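One such shown below:

_____
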Amino acid sequence: MSNSGGSSPFLESPLRASSKLEQTVDKDRKLMSLQYKLNSVQNEFEIERLRLQQQYNSVDKKYRVKVEELEKALSDTTFLYETNSRLEQELKELKVQLDECVNQRDQVIQDLSRKLHVKEQSSVDRLSDLESKLSEREHVIDRLKIEVQSSQSLVKRYDEEIAKQANEIKQLRKANTEKDDEIASLRASRVIMAHHNYSTEELQELTVVNKMFKDQVQYTKELEEVNLQQASELKKLRISSESQQFWKSENAKLQNRLEQMDQMERQIQDLQLENLNLKSQLASWDIYNNGKDKPEDIIREIKLAKESLLVLTDENEKFRLDNGNLKILNDELALERNQLLDLSKKYEASIINYKKLNHEIEQQKQLAFEECKLLRKQLDEFAAFNEESKEDSNARDPNRLKDLETIVDSYKNQTEDLTEELRKLNDQLLAQEPSLKKRKMSDQLGLNYSQRLNELQLNNVKILRELQNSQNNNKILQEKLQKLSDLKEKSIRILQLRDNPLLKDQFIKRKQLQLLKKENEDLLQELTNEKGTSIERIPRSIYESLSFELKQRDDDLLKAGKKFNRLKEMFNKKSLEFIDVVNSLLGFKLEFQQEGKVKIFSAFKPDRYLTADLNQNTLKSNLTADLDDWDDLLHTWVEDRGQIPCFLATLTLRLWEISNKNQIDKNT
């Protein structure tokens, strides 16, 4: 193959007659080498052709399998597209149902608010009635209390009078019995002395006794009348006591009702708070409320929506699984399609190589034809030369020429066979070009289908997102409905972020940089304009820069002042907390003064204090009048032992004992 593109050795000038034998030997050798090359090329061509045929068959088989799989994937894609459209329709229906559910729920909320308003009005009316009844019963109770008090005092007075009169009745009965005895004795004496004359004195005594007897009888009658009157009054008092017991029971009942009224008032307050919460929550729902549905309709629609949501979630999970499988299949098909495209590219490259090889073989064939013509021409010349030199070459072998002619004929036949095979191969390639075009078209169709499949997958993802959003909205609405039903108010605190110090610092630095640049430019301009003259004025940019720095200094001073005030307030607050803690735990109130002095007030003796000078280590106090052993305590705990906390603790105990003793004395 290396000599296929070069010039043929037969194109050289013919040899001279003296060297024809050597040329014949060289030609034989070259002819044999050419025949060997032709055989090797033919064998390589056959091997390559068989290998390409096998590759073509395997690629064709794989291609058909992939086309079938692609058709299946396309059928699955159409099914997925149909189900996707059906899901879109169901999603629209669900959105409509969700809007209807929201409207129905708003109607239920309106009805509930209306009922709540009616109940609130009825409760207010009932409360007013109960308050009026309560006021009446309170007046009745007050009047009855007054009557009971008066009746109790009257009963007490009557009891005293009855006891007094009973004692008098007993005495009168005793006197009456005595008088009866006297009367009986007098009657007996009168009977005995019937026949005797009575003296005037005795008659007077009898008249006096008779008169006294009549007076006693009259007094007893009056006492009986008074007794009857007191019995009737006592009966009235018993009736009034029974009525008093009745009114006491009524009072107890009214007290129970009053307690119930307190509970009802608390319930009414709770209901009013709930009503306010409902009104505040209904104010936000009135925007979306049309007032058409009933509570049972909303509950039924919510149940149906939940059931349909469960069904749709199950179908969504199934479609997700199918979509995942389709994605995996699509990825596999895309990989196989890419592999097929690579194989197709390799196949086209091999076809191009075959065409190049065919072209080279055609060129070799033409060269071989030309060489055969030249060989024939040289053979004719060689035959003519042999005829001329028969006399000189009688000893040569005559079969040599015949062998050469047979070799040339076989070479010609082989080249003709080779050209025939090449022609057939070209015909096969030309016949395979429409199928390649069809395969290219099918590849393009598969590419279009894969693009359509990707678009459908993206659309499916978008629909799934919309479905997820609708589910989230439904969940949020259900949570809001649950919150409305629970009537739990939650306070929302909005935190507002203050200005960013980093951005503010960057703004200040940027402003300073701009002012400095402008200042430098103005100074350079002044220097360039006034060379050799003294500068008696400054540019405006320097003034602006200095004023900006002054403004920044003022802002820094203002911030420092605010920070100082804030720290001062914090220090005062913490110091007050410290003083309160010391006062509550140790029983002393501290008051810090200038020049390192501290006043210590005891909680049990606020008008007395200790003054400690921390700079000069002195301790003064006005507690010497209250504590007799002040000097001993000071000497023991401070001078000898150096324990001021123990000294203060001892003072606290002594002052507590003194205050406790004073409190006991006041109570006694």
Summary: The beta strands are 588-592, 597-602, 605-613, 618-621.
